[in-house]
Recover the amino acids of this structure.
């Protein structure tokens, strides 16, 4: 009777070793797919964060621009750009900021006056551009090397001086 128990125990152990090998094989097949999904989620989260950041940087900068701050001492344009860069400072690398204006909001077509934040009651636009570099190596090969995220916001300048 004892010999029979040892034989069934040995057979059970051999069967368990076969199941363990199957589990390792299944894990080896599923692991790359699981890692690709995790890296994809992380990469999409980083892209979303960077896009939200450049959009917020443009919003903050244009809100500052419409107040006319820095108009008296001639630092208005540099301060607007600095406001956008301050918000986007959390991103690795650098951002480019373009400030443009139009005389009236109804004639806001074309490129406007680039490098000018406009006078009171004129339309001002702040555009923040960021070159996104992939964070993860696996999914990064699927993202184009020249991916540029852009945030753009327009508002009408407040009448800090009488409007024309």
């Amino acid at each position: 009777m004892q010999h029979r128990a040892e034989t069934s125990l040995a057979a059970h152990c051999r069967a368990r070793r076969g199941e363990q090998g199957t589990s390792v094989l299944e894990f080896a097949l599923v692991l790359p797919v699981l890692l690709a999904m995790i890296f994809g989620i992380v990469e999409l989260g980083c892209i979303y964060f960077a896009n939200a950041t450049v959009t917020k940087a443009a919003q903050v900068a244009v809100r500052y621009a419409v107040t006319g701050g820095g108009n008296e001492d001639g630092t208005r344009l540099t301060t607007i750009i600095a406001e956008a860069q301050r918000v986007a400072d959390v991103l690795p690398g650098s951002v480019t900021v373009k400030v443009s204006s139009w005389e009236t909001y109804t004639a806001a077509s074309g490129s406007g006056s680039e490098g000018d934040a406009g006078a009171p009651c004129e339309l001002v636009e702040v555009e923040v551009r960021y070159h996104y570099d992939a964070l993860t190596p696996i999914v990064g090969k699927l993202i184009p090397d020249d991916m540029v995220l852009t945030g753009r916001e327009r508002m009408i300048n407040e009448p800090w001086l009488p409007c024309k």
Q: What stands out?
A: The chain is about 50% helix and 15% strand. Helices lie at 2-65, 76-87, 137-140. The beta strands are 95-102, 113-114, 123-131, 148-156.
